[in-house]
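Protocol step 4 of 6: record predicted structures for both targets in the notebook before any analysis. Target 1:
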Amino acid sequence: MHDRIVLHAEPSSVGAARRWCARTLERWGASGQVVDSACLVVSELVTNAVLHAGTSCELTVTGPAEVDGDVVRIEVADGDPGVPVAKRYDIDAASGRGLHLVEALSDRFGTSPLGAGKSVWCELAWESSR
């Protein structure tokens, strides 16, 4: 199980990515908890790509049949080589918590260089609804 979608650098891509991810994982038989967590992670990673990279991005979801371990892997690749860094913000800050959220929901989380860009990825434990 493996699927991908290319998204434009525009705010509407975040919702499109979330809906696409949910449909993909539901079609594969993922549990509701996996779908919810994956969609939240996808929202954060695509938002970062849209806001900070400013390039189109490619969202890839890979199911447990193609990944070592019983996990679903989510990757967002963009054209900016800058590696995102989780920052500490004041408690009243309106933003800056996305990567902390991704890290908290993921079993593994990281970045990989890709030519002129990068891939930000995470893995979530797989649970089937079947």
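Target 2:
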Amino acid sequence: MRRRWKRSWLAMALLVPVAMLAQEAKAAQGPYTLTAQFSYRATVADVPAGTKELRVWLPVPSNSEWQKVEDLKVTQDVQDNIASPYKVTQERKYGNRMVYLDIKHPPSTVAATVQFTVQRKNMQVLGAPTAPVQVKMDMAQAIKLLAPDAKVPIGGRYGGIAQQVTLGKTSREDKMRAIFDHVVATMQYDYKKESPEYGEGDVAFVCDYKKGNCSDLHSYMISLARSVGVPTILEYGFPIGGIPLADPLPATGKIGGYHCWVWFQNAQGNWVPVDASDARKWLDAGQPEKKDYLFGNLIPERSSVAFSRGRDITLAPAQKGGPLNYFIYPYAEADGKTVKADWVLTYQLPDKPALATHIQ
């Protein structure tokens, strides 16, 4: 069966500037799909006394060619008989979805839980035996993904590094592969979270410190890629398995933190995933064969649900504070001032899969 490219959920949302790759199932066995049920709870435990209005934004995933989101359910803890209707909204820049709560004269603690089921397809893009049909992106959309972000500069020092790393490379894919190899070879994963700017994606810092988490390493990668004309975007989600993957995967679990990966656009307008951060971690785990796989493919257990894309996010409706560096955790404001929002994310596998034999 011939594989073909489809538009991403961002493009389907009309407001979103990204069209992405997809491929059809193999004729004989169909694509590998990981199904998981999630429960995402947000709690504002210390609402300041006398607060007149508490606003809470909780990210939720969207449908795409790679994932199908079903059975979305929102529940609220009610104290002092105070409840507020919720809305599912979508920000304009990237089309990221969220549950929005606006609670007047809130109690001291407010909590909400979002439950949903995700069917996540195997994101195997490069190395397929049959080339997919190509889908183009218009120039205006591509230009948006060549611009700098607040903490992701382009050109200057980073342009010089990118030019050196990609010397002699002409195609976007070859340039991106050279940058991918450079990041994996020169950056370390910060397992102990020693970096004073851990997870901030501050390229100026990471370039010198040479250590960080997935957001840090991938922000550096995006800076170099955009500096040599390769449109790229960062996508945030959550894993249900660590590195190396457990065999078999636990049927239930609590997720400790996000994961992120990068999509780049090749010259034909197609979108390709890469994960240099996990490539580095697989090398550290003594499985170097996974490094090459993660240029052009993703491992579903490590990207079991995608939530949001991009940086410098203005929520919907807009928050009073400035744009968010990224939007993967709950955000809350009490009378326009940021307050702490705790979170707990758990998963359950309705059909417990074997170890990831789909990884070639």
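Step 5 preliminary note on target 2. The chain has two domains: 9-24+34-120+310-348, 123-307. Helices lie at 9-12, 139-144, 156-165, 172-186, 203-209, 214-227, 276-284, 289-293.
Proceed to step 6 after PI sign-off.
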